[in-house]
Design goal:
Elements (H helix, E strand, L loop, with lengths): L1 E6 L5 H10 L3 E4 L1 H9 L19 H15 L3 H9 L6 E6 L2 H9 L3 E6 L2 H11 L10 H15 L1 H4 L5 E4 L4 H18 L1
Helix pairs in contact: 2-4
C-alpha cells in the first residue's frame, strides 16, 4: 500500500506520515530523492535520472532541481524515485506530495492520498516552533504568507484537495490527529 500526504507548509504532513510509520509503513518524503541526488547519496536507488553537481540542499535548490527533474523526466519523477528508494517495503507513506501528477502517480500505483489542512495562523505558529533549517528565512507572519503564497502559485496546493481520498483538518491536539490517522489506517487496511 502506498499513501501520499499532501498539504500546505506546516499543515502536519510529516506528523501524519510519522503516525503511519509507527504502524509499520516505511516513510519517505518527496524531497528525499532531491536531497540524495544533490548530496550524491544514491546507494538506495536502483536507478537515478542524473547526478547534478554536488550542492547544499537548501529549499531554493530543492525547488529549482525538482522543477528541472520534473520538466525533463515527467511530473511523477519524485514519486518514482521515492518508491524506488523504499522498494523493499510492503507499505510506504510519502510525505510532501505536491502536484496533480504526483497524486495521479500514487493512485496509479493503487495508493491513497490524504490532504492535511489547517488555518494559516496555526501553521505559522507550528512553523515558528519547529525552527527547521529550511524555514530560517521566515521571521514574521508576512514572511510566512509570502512563502505560502509562492508555494501555492508554484504547486496549486489548494486545488489538490479535491483529488484526495481523505481530508484531515489538523487544528486540534496531537491525540486528535492520531485518532483521525488511525481511522484512515483502519479504513485503508480494510480495503487492501
Amino acid at each position: 500500500m502506498i499513501i501520499g500526504v499532501v498539504g500546505k507548509i506546516a499543515a502536519g504532513k510529516t506528523t501524519v506520515a510519522k503516525f503511519f510509520e509507527e504502524k509499520g509503513f516505511c516513510r519517505v518524503s518527496c524531497s528525499e530523492p532531491l536531497i540524495d541526488l544533490l548530496t550524491h547519496n544514491v546507494s538506495d536507488y536502483s536507478w537515478i535520472p542524473e547526478l547534478p553537481e554536488r550542492a547544499e540542499p537548501t529549499r531554493d535548490r530543492l525547488i529549482e532541481f525538482g522543477k528541472y527533474l520534473k520538466d525533463r523526466y515527467g511530473g511523477d519523477v519524485l514519486i518514482r524515485l521515492a518508491v524506488d528508494k523504499k522498494r523493499h517495503c510492503e507499505n510506504i507513506v510519502i510525505d510532501g506530495v505536491r502536484s496533480r501528477e504526483e497524486i495521479e502517480a500514487v493512485k496509479r500505483l493503487g495508493g491513497k492520498v490524504i490532504y492535511v489542512e489547517a488555518k494559516p495562523e496555526i501553521r505559522f505558529e507550528r512553523l515558528m516552533k519547529r525552527r527547521a533549517e529550511k524555514d530560517r528565512g521566515i521571521k514574521s507572519f508576512a514572511d510566512f504568507r509570502g512563502m505560502d503564497n509562492a508555494e501555492e502559485r508554484l504547486y496549486h496546493t489548494s486545488e489538490l484537495k479535491g483529488l484526495a481520498d481523505y481530508i484531515i483538518v489538523n487544528e486540534g491536539t496531537l491525540e486528535e490527529l492520531r485518532k483521525k490517522v488511525e481511522g484512515i489506517i483502519e479504513d485503508v487496511a480494510g480495503k487492501v
